[in-house]
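User: Some background: our group keeps a shared notebook of sequences we're curious about, and every so often someone picks one and asks for a predicted structure to add to the entry. Today it's my turn. The entry only has the sequence so far, pasted here. Could you supply the structure so I can complete it?
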Amino acid sequence: MQITFDADQQLFHLKNDQISYIMGIEKEKYLVHRYFGPALSSYHQVNALQLIDRGFNTNPDCSDRSFSLNTLPLETSTQGSLDYRIPNYQFRNKQGYRVTAFEYAGYQILPGKPKLTGLPSLSSENTQTLEITLEDRPQNLRMHLRYTLFEKLPVISRNVVYENLGTDAVYLEHAGSMMVDFPSANYDLLTLNGAHTNEANLSRQALHSGIQRIDSNRGTSSPQHLPFIALADKQANEDQGTVIGAQLIYSGNFVAQVEVEQYGSSRLQMGINPDTFEWKLAPNESFVTPEAVLNYSTTGLNGLSQTFHTLYQKHLVPTYWQNRPRPILLNTWEGNYFSFHEDELLSQAKEAKNLGIELFVLDDGWFAGRNDDTQALGDWQVNQEKLPEGINGLAEKIHNMG
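Assistant: Of course. Here's the predicted structure to add to the notebook entry:
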């Protein structure tokens, strides 16, 4: 496993035994995606960037009509930057302007991976992280794009840190975790959709021009659309073919989307749902996004699934539980619904203990005023008539049973 930077070619190469992920710096400003696929021993830019003079393209330098941000395969982008595809971030300053000018400013290669305080995230064991810094110097804004490589898995995890180093507050209107541009759109799009008690039904459809999107603004990731998306070769099945999967390690509002642009490339973007999001970023404050996982399989959907299973078992499940059987549990719901008192719960817990049950779960019905399905859900105040000593008192008595 290694992460390298070739100063002569201005290329970053993240590589282990299974995959390579390659990015370049163009015009000393723009971070450009070059390759994601099976491991390469070295990279010689045989897949050259397609720089073509196209009519009505947006060119940051009018003297070079072939260089357009609207067709360049970028690693991050925003509206107002001459790129009109779906963005990965958006700032608004105190004047209400949304134009930013982020440019490449440096990098560092870190052992392990930074901890995402307050967020669920993968562990740092057997990892290495590339952190690339971009700066908007006129507004003193900075972002850190993090790419973590896992030693024995075809996985790159990604997240972004947005920083305000200026003297005025700014507002983050969009804080994506990941964006990547692929040179082709010849994929099928896979999503997992459903409803309550009917989750994770596989949908497969061809990519087409425009934007295909799943999301949630329900406050949770939701059973309607899971925070997962995949691009599969047309012939890929359970056991063969290339599949690129992406999953957000986050249980709140999210968006996962793909745009096929006018010349046949595709952009994959994932993160917090911007439709219900705004974050005031005060001077010297930062915002850390949830972690997104990019997973590459050459052995179809089964290979993708096995990698996700291994990754989460070894790097997300708490160490204590990784190789232990889960405890047998008693859940209060089916035995009581909304009608119970602490004495009844303690009696049930005692009997459960005698039967060898190891875990007691207090389900719905403990909120103040929560006596049926029409009221008080999520009030978060304990019903003292049902639990005179609160949840802590009940928990202490059940723990004392062993």
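Suggested note for the entry: Residues 329-400 form one domain. The helical segments are 300-315, 332-336, 342-354, 390-400.
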